[in-house]
Structures are given as structure tokens and as C-alpha cells.
């Protein structure tokens, strides 16, 4: 243990000189840490979440100094420093594999990004939404009490008057009423004004995420989903998929989430 700590402190000294910040892992993990990208020359892909399944949002040059606000587990990656499942958050919606980041430690250097467990009301809302997984998608379908027949006609021309299920906003109506006795309005655009708007960086399980064809114009919102933590949502997206759980995409994602429960 002493030898490991000495090696860690020695490596930290080098990093501290180079980029001005270092943390060590022992009794606890500091609030943030510093690192440097090391890919032996190639740029490193930055992802929107902790894994290769998340969208690529940019690239970062080899040798770039970064500040790691937190770390999360995700896709296993083999890189400069071996194989690791840790992903380092280096900005809002920006993650890189720790296998390519020199931090001065062989272990954790920053706190866990995983949000705290949701409160009772949020957990109940999430459970209600999960209870409807694999229900059919139905344009205009769903309300406070469960799946319903849809309406005619969707922008793509679907007539769902004979299809029992949910659309995106119908699922939110059901989940929030069944889980927290909160009655939301019936469209995603109206639901965007049905609670407190919170910056995406501070979202927690139980918040609603919204997508728009123009993120500066809420009147163009066309989709809503329920955030359940760890970059995942439950949504009723379209006729190509039943209600499902997936990782959220940042493309067209509104800058604020809506918190309809305390």
C-alpha cells in the first residue's frame, strides 16, 4: 500500500507541474481532477455520455489538458493506459474514455457521475413508465389511466384510431399521474411549461427531456421522454419501436429539462 501511494504521489507531482492540479485516491475522492489526453498523436472522440454507444460530439487533440468533474462506468475501452470501463466527464455532455487520459493515478480520481437515487415520487413515476414498456406506439394514444386508441392522423399519415397504446406525451401523462398524482397537459409542447425548467447539467431521474426542430423555439417541440438516470430515458418515439428504454440523444435536445415534481 505504501509503495502504491508513493508511486501515485510521484506521478501526481509530474502532472501537477504540467497542468496545475492533482488529486490522490485514499480516504476519499476529491471534487475534481486534472488529466491530459494521451493518444500517441491521434485526436480522441468526445462522446455525449459514458460509452461508445453515445453520440460523438467532437474530437479533442492529443496532449490537451482536461479537468475531470466526475467519472462513470460505461463501455470497456482499450487504450494507452490499458483497458478501462471508466469514462471521464470533461464538460457538459462531454465524456472521454479514461483509457486515454493520464491522471497521475491508477484508480479513481473524481467522484461518481451517477445521480443519487430518485426520491419516492420520482421513483414511482419511473416505475409507472417502466410498467408500460413494450406497449405499442399510437399517435395521440394514452392518458392518465393507461393506453388508449390513438387518433388520425400523424404528420406521417398514420391513422391510429384502431391502435391501442401511447404516444410520447400520453406516456408522460400516465407516468406522472399514476406515480405522483400530477396531471400534465396532453401535448409535449404544453408539458414543457408544466414544471420548473432546470439546466440539463443538473437533471435528475424523474425529469422530462424535450426535443425540438429548433432548440431556441419551444413552439417547435415534437418529442418528450422521461429521464431515469445514467444517460437513459423511457420513451414512446414512433411507429418503428414499441415503448422502450434507451440512451438519450443530444441532437435537437432542448437546453432545459422540466421538473414536474419536487
Which helices and strands appear, and what pairs or packs with what?
Elements: H1 2-19, E1 33-37, E2 44-47, E3 56-60, E4 65-68, E5 70-79, E6 82-91, E7 94-97, E8 101-102, H2 120-130, E9 148-149, E10 164-165, H3 168-180, H4 188-191, E11 196-199, E12 208-212, E13 221-229, E14 232-235, E15 244-247, E16 256-259
Antiparallel strand pairs: 1-4, 1-8, 2-3, 5-6, 6-7, 9-10, 11-16, 12-13, 13-14, 14-15
Helix pairs in contact: 2-3
Task: Please summarize what this structure is.
By secondary structure, the protein is an alpha+beta fold. It has helices at residues 2-19, 120-130, 168-180, 188-191, and strands spanning 33-37, 44-47, 56-60, 65-68, 70-79, 82-91, 94-97, 101-102, 148-149, 164-165, 196-199, 208-212, 221-229, 232-235, 244-247, 256-259. A hairpin with a 2-residue loop joins strand 6 and strand 7 (94-97).
Can you tell me about this structure?
There is one protein chain. The chain is an alpha+beta fold and 262 residues long. The chain has four helices and 16 strands. The protein has helices spanning 2-19, 120-130, 168-180, 188-191, and strands at residues 33-37, 44-47, 56-60, 65-68, 70-79, 82-91, 94-97, 101-102, 148-149, 164-165, 196-199, 208-212, 221-229, 232-235, 244-247, 256-259.
